[in-house]
Design brief:
It holds the Pfam family Phosphorylase. The chain is an alpha/beta fold. Helices cover 49% and strands 15% of the residues. Helix 23 links the parallel strand 21 and strand 22 (634-639). Helix 22 crosses helix 29 (730-740). It is globular and about 95 Å long. The relative contact order is 0.10. Bound molecules: beta-D-glucopyranose spirohydantoin.
């Protein structure tokens, strides 16, 4: 059971604000902050003035929270993440402050529709997908639960690229989310940090003959912090997300500048600024680029120095309380370089003995693993590490030497195979630093993000580490914030819930279980499905606007939204669509409930096959949507530029949620939780958090299919031959062969052949063909279920009722209990 650490009643000063008072604030800011006038202000200016009005309340909360944390000298968690996929903050902040209705009314009285103003805001897309969005949900929960926390990351100038389709192909455009400034952030020049990279290490001896290492950096870079207040829901805490922007150090620049090297100085400027220029657009693939390592080090070093500065303000040079006050959560291995950086600060700068420094480190860091995909397990060539961070490489060697000697050799004396396997340095032609190993060795706790994934982390990824330190390993199943993913994005359903089960559910999501008592009530069923229908009608308009395709809200809305990756198997979905289409062509009376297949996904710009899958879906969509013989039984749409804001429109309108990854590949998934929460029925494999969703909603309310983790392993071991499925199943053969013709790409045969080739010659690494049969059976089951209106309504209601477990508040409480040992700090 989740222990409650939240306040459900509005308590901050903002709650008392009336529409009239807000109006006064908005107009005042229109004049004083925007320098414009009611008569000529643009929608942008109105939006900005409203943000400024809201910020008066936000900043009040921020000041009181910070004062309280300082006075109480609270222990805090510091969330280190290279990604935060925040989306828009306008309606979120209004909802969390309890001001949404007043603002809506105030703006209406001023002649503006709040929804139109919401569209003035660019998404803050400083993340790729689930990992970055999870970080955003977590900081929302931390503030809501009054837990002292700071999020640290990078202030990317360009977030995740914007996606367009040209003739069906993905084109990437740069994202400039803050081209004209962002009203939610505050620059803090008083907290600038300087960090070093490159250079060389000198060994010197002090007067007592003690050896010391001195790092002579090759370049110094300035980190400028931007603070984004994180407003808790109806609680009074406002925490901070602190993002670092890189700039050239004044110190270096002026030197070059004064000696006449204006051009050189500018070049240095540009190079330094490059560090926070762009987010790497790969989800779950390690880039291996020097710039990426520098990004990681840059924000870790700035953040650690920031933490230490704050600690020293309260405790001076007494380091003994540091582990009591500070816990750092590493969001995957991306910030793992923080471990040797803290060692460097303690040993080289604070002159601490190695053992004492290591003791501190091991009480401060905890590591979350978010993926088992081999291509995502970060490792850096020793050569590059040495060039960029020469002193850190030495420290890592020393950490490794002691680990192998004091742990591995004691446990497995003389076992060189074990040493090779466990070494932080992977030997070979090109020696590599393994960041996962470093993270486990340097952390006091390691967790996966769903039950099955945490088990696999232990059994498949780090079994020997588990043998050494069984108590280090734990699970924390992911969650999502119900404030954004139900309350704000689905206002119709939220009001219905308020009426039926009271209004405490946004901070106590288990309350949703009360809804189960109504699952058979015809009136509630009608209301629930009427809301779904209205949400679908809204989405149909968006679809028409974005894609030009007309869809019927009476059809099943079947949605697959997530990054494009072979393991997520959007192509399995496509093969099934092709099979249905073929059945219709073969049998004009083929009986199926009309269905709209809706996709949203960005492919990493360098991921060729992923881009080919997008192209294939778009070409198949074009053909099917225009084929009169289909009689609208199938529509296929690919929503361009899928992002948080689009997800907020799609999720409330979903009937079916596609969660069809190869078992063992999706660590958890969080879209699966959001869709079920909004009453969609999952078609899914027993992978990641789908397993736990199935446990919660029960087998009547979910369509599970496909190989299990163990079956996948067994099939691989016995030898998987995708060609057998191709030859034995005529439908599979027909649709794959179809892709090679010019049926979907007139005059250009073979344009869609990449998918077939990867499934046959490529060996079908994600077992698409092995799961096809089960998948199409699950889809038939959905078709059957949907024909029974009352039965479907019941299933939909049961999904909403049973997924209270998947609030990020529960995840955070699990982290508090199993990892952080934090206490809430109530702010008046
Ligand atoms: C991911 C996993 O792929 C998702 O399954 C998971 O839900 C998410 C958050 O834990 O992390 N790992 C990753 O590198 N990107 C992800 O989305």
């Amino acid at each position: 059971m989740t222990k409650k650490t939240t306040s459900t009643k509005p308590s901050s000063a903002a709650m008392q604000l009336t529409a009239e008072q807000l109006k006064e604030r908005i107009v005042r800011h229109l004049h004083a902050t925007l320098g414009t006038d009611i008569n000529k202000a643009s929608p942008q200016a109105w939006w900005r003035a409203t943000c400024a009005a809201v910020n008066e309340s936000v900043f009040d909360g921020l000041r009181t929270t910070q004062r309280e944390h300082y006075q109480q000298d609270t222990r805090a968690v510091h969330y280190f993440s290279l990604e935060y996929l925040m989306g828009r903050l306008f309606s979120n902040n209004l909802h969390n402050l309890g001001l949404y209705q007043s603002a809506k009314q105030a703006l209406a009285e001023l002649g503006h529709d709040i929804a139109e103003l919401e569209d003035q805001e660019e998404d803050m897309a400083l993340g790729n997908g689930g990992l970055g969005r999870l970080a955003a949900c977590f900081i929302d929960s931390l503030a809501t639960m009054n837990l002292p926390a700071v999020g640290y990351g990078i202030h990317y100038e360009h977030g995740l690229f914007q996606q367009e389709f040209q003739a069906g192909r993905q084109i990437e455009r740069p994202d400039s989310w803050r081209e004209y400034g962002n009203p939610w952030e505050i620059c803090r020049p008083e907290s600038v940090q300087e960090i070093s990279v490159y250079g060389y290490v000198e060994t010197v001896y002090d007067l007592q003959g003690r050896m010391k290492k001195v790092w002579h950096p090759g370049r110094i870079i300035k980190g400028v912090p931007w603070d984004i207040p994180v407003v808790g829901y109806h609680g009074s805490s406002v925490n901070v997300l602190r993002l670092w922007e890189s700039r050239a150090s004044d110190f270096f620049n002026w030197d070059v500048f004064n000696s006449g090297g204006y051009v050189d100085a500018s070049r240095e400027n540009i190079e330094a600024e490059t560090i926070s220029k762009v987010l790497y657009p790969n989800d779950e693939t390690e880039a291996g680029k020097e710039l990426r390592l520098i990004q990681q080090y840059f924000f870790c070093s700035c953040s650690l120095k920031d933490i230490i500065r704050r600690y020293k303000r309260a405790h001076g040079d007494d380091w003994s309380k540091f582990p009591e006050q500070v816990v750092i959560q590493l969001n995957d291995t991306h910030p793992a370089v923080a471990i040797p950086e803290l060692m460097r600060i303690l040993v080289d700068r604070a002159d601490m003995h190695w053992d004492e420094a290591w003791g501190i480190c091991q009480q401060v860091f905890a590591y979350t693993n978010h993926t088992l995909l081999p291509e995502a397990l970060e490792s850096w060539s020793v050569r590059m590490f040495e060039k960029v961070l020469p002193r850190h490489l030495e420290i890592i060697y020393e950490i490794n030497r002691r680990f192998l000697l004091e742990q591995v050799d004691v446990r497995w004396p003389g076992d060189n195979d074990k040493k090779r396997k466990l070494s932080i340095i992977e030997e070979g032609h090109e020696p590599m630093v393994r960041m996962g190993h470093l993270s486990v060795v340097g952390s006091f706790r390691v967790n996966g993000v769903a039950e099955v994934h945490s088990k696999l982390v232990q059994s498949d990824l780090f079994p020997e580490m588990v043998a050494l330190w069984p108590e280090k390993f734990t699970n924390v199943t992911n969650g999502v914030t119900p404030r954004r993913w139900l309350k704000a994005c689905n206002p119709r359903l939220s009001s219905m819930l308020d009426r039926l089960i009271g209004s405490d559910w946004p901070t106590d999501l288990k309350q949703l279980s009360k809804l189960a008592a109504y699952a058979d009530d015809p009136k509630v069923q009608d209301d629930f499905m009427a809301i779904k229908q209205q949400n679908k009608a809204d989405l149909a308009k968006v679809i028409q606007d974005l894609t030009g395709v007309a869809v019927d809200p009476a059809a099943i809305f079947d949605i697959q939204i997530k990054r494009l990756h072979e393991y997520k198997r959007q192509h399995l979905n496509l093969l099934h669509i092709l099979a249905l289409y073929r059945r219709i062509l073969q049998n004009p009376d083929y009986d199926m409930v009309p269905r709209v297949f809706i996709f949203g996904a960005k492919a990493a710009p360098g991921y060729k096959l992923a881009k080919e899958i997008i192209y294939a879906i778009n070409k198949v969509a074009e053909k099917i949507n225009h084929d009169k013989r289909v009689k609208d039984r199938i529509k296929v749409v690919f929503m361009p530029n899928y992002r948080v804001t689009l997800a907020e429109k799609m999720i409330p309108a979903a009937d079916v949620s596609e969660q069809i990854s190869t078992a063992g590949k999706e660590a958890s998934g969080t879209g699966n939780m959001k869709l079920a929460l909004n009453g969609a029925i999952t078609v899914g494999t027993l992978d990641g958090a789908n397993i736990e969703i199935a446990e919660e909603v029960g087998e009547d309310n979910i369509a599970i299919f496909g190989l299990t983790v163990d079956e996948v392993k067994a099939l691989r071991q016995s030898g998987y031959h995708s060609r057998d499925y191709y030859h034995n199943n005529p439908e599979i053969k027909a649709v794959l062969d179809w892709l090679e013709t010019d049926y979907f790409t007139p005059g250009k045969p073979g344009e869609l052949a990449a998918i077939k080739h990867s499934l046959l010659e490529g060996g079908d690494p994600y077992l698409v063909l092995a799961d096809f049969e089960g998948y199409q059976a699950a889809q038939q089951q959905i078709d059957g279920w949907y024909r029974d209106k009352a039965g479907w309504a019941k299933k939909a209601i049961m999904n909403t009722a049973c997924v209270g477990k998947f609030t990020s508040d529960r995840s955070i409480q699990d982290y508090v209990d199993r990892v952080w040992q934090l206490k809430p700090c109530k702010v008046d």
